[in-house]
Amino acid sequence: MSLKPTVQLKNVTKIIGKKTIIDNISFEIYPGEVFGFLGPNGAGKTTTIRMLVGLIKPTSGKINICGFDVRKQFVQAMQRLGSIVENPELYKYLSGRENLQIFARMLPDVDEERIQEVIDLVDLTARIDDQVRTYSLGMRQRLGIAQALLGRPDVLILDEPTNGLDPMGIKALRTFIRKLVDDTGLSVLVSSHILSEIELLADRVAIMSHGKIVKVGSVSDLVGALSSGVDWRVSDSFRALAIFKESPYVQAAELYDDHTIHTLMDEGRTSILNEALMKAGIEVWTIERKVQTLEDLFISLTGGDHIV
Amino acid sequence: MSNPNMIGLIHNEVMKIASKKRLAVVIVILVILVSMFTYAQYREIQEKIEKQGTLDWRVELQQEIVDRQNRLASSGIQDEFRQFLEFDLKQKQYYLDNDINPNYPGAPTFIRIFFSQGITLVLPLFIIIIMADIVSGEYNDGTIKTLLSRPVKRWKILMAKWLTVLLYTSMLMAATVIVCYGVSGIVLGYDGWTAPILTGFQASASGEFSTEYIHTLPMWEYLLMSVGLAWVVTAVVGTISIMISVLVKNTATGIGAMMAVLIAGTLLSSIGSSWTSSKYLVNLNFDLINYLEGQAPPIEGMSLPFSLTILGIWAAACLAVAFWNFTQKDMY
């Protein structure tokens, strides 16, 4: 991509006490993309996000937001960034509008008109003058997003935005984020421990485990790379295995039981292999393309960390 | 750039505090307290009229002097208390000799006594009620994360909070004067602003009593000084509580710690005169109006400039710790 990154992490490490919480991570996010940040609880997603928004100082490494160093040019960096860290933490004893007014006073050039604009954008007009304590979680989430969008940021950070939302709410949020990105061309960083969400929402994904980024790539690439698994059910899997191992089209073959072999192979060559098996006198009962999910990749990358 | 500016940040803090209605709670407490004290005073006056037949302050003062003399004559009173009684006796005698009523009846005198009694405990307590959660509340609600990821430097946010403490200290002083005047005046009458009052008694813990610098002031001027000194003490307590609020991050613990500071001060100043270095403790220097009244200080060597300096140093130190901690710490 030729565009300049809006978020840039370079060799960021955070050590608390003797524990390395974040271990030398680097990634970039570009304008107009939704970047998924995937990992189990405790992998270091929230710590990374807190470093991004200046709540925590990295032990070493650099973080830039639109070219501004978060440590040295905190104010300029934060003017280009809107965020919800963990839950949408707002003043429950104030109304939604008062909350927005408070955060508007901490930003340059945000007037009442802009406040009304974001209220309309997140569709909270009807309840905006009620106390936030009376809001449902979904409404708080929307108010949090309104707050994050007040200053017309170039980067929007949403930490676990679907926590506590019902399926309808999750779908609405997804549509909202997609539309926002398409309309304004901002970058969105979404963290989640739920794969299916990220798979549906993000353009690119960073997979995090034990404080490290184990993989970064576009969702289609990651899923595409995985979809070439083929399962074979044959009369004699031991002899079939030998044939698979010799074939140049098979990257990996694994014996599952007497009759089943899992392979990773070029799907286009299935018939050639089928023929080879028949010639060797092995009956082929079923050939099944096994669609692997990001979850399989995740488990293979992180060594079986628990995810949902 | 008009935003974000300090006035806007203070506006935010005021909005948060105002919606919690803390000042209203404090005013309600004030009204209740002042009503009770006023009624007590009213009963006292009634009783005196019954006993003495008249309400002549000279007779009353003479009686009190005789009472002090009797108590001084009795054996078995502690040295410190003896000293206190001696000073008190001399002061009362001085008032009587100069034909000045030390307790001119009226709401202004009530204000004077209320501030004199309230400066060490009640007024600081009120500021704690209003302000104790100004930082820790943000931790408790989690809003600190939203607050500190906005494009405003952390020191500015804390500065706004501290200036808000000073603002509310001023409002508290004004509210106290207004409530005292309004409520006590119903019974005691509203005049007495220009009644003379003596100040400049010089008393030292070593037992000297000097009348060299005594002069009379009109009541309103004396009250202005009292309120000013109470403002200083309350602002210092507010500053300490902001530091504790930054450090402990838990409102209940913070209030507990501040209460301990206040109560320990009251206790120490009544028992601690042989521990002379305790005069450097902040909570032993809260009774500033004491100097105005010319009572003996709790510990030898204490004076108004000394106490003001100590309070100033403590406030500056607390601010330094609060700012350093607030701007440097990782927020989880």
Automatic annotation (TrEMBL), chain A:
Residues 7-235 form the ABC transporter domain. Keywords: ATP-binding, Nucleotide-binding, Transport. The keyword Metal-binding does not apply. InterPro entries: AAA+_ATPase (IPR003593), ABC_transporter-like_ATP-bd (IPR003439), ABC_transporter-like_CS (IPR017871), P-loop_NTPase (IPR027417). GO terms for molecular function: ATP binding; ATP hydrolysis activity. The keyword ATP-binding applies. Belongs to the ABC transporter superfamily. PANTHER family: ABC TRANSPORTER, ATP-BINDING PROTEIN. This is ABC-2 type transport system ATP-binding protein. It comes from Cytobacillus firmus.
UniProtKB/TrEMBL annotation, chain B:
GO terms for cellular component: plasma membrane. The chain crosses the membrane at residues 23-42, 113-136, 157-184, 222-248, 255-275, 306-326. GO terms for molecular function: ABC-type transporter activity. Pfam families: ABC2_membrane_2. Keywords: Membrane, Transmembrane, Transmembrane helix. The keyword Membrane applies. It comes from the Bacteria. This is ABC-2 type transport system permease protein. It comes from Cytobacillus firmus. The lineage of its organism: Bacteria, Bacillati, Bacillota, Bacilli, Bacillales.
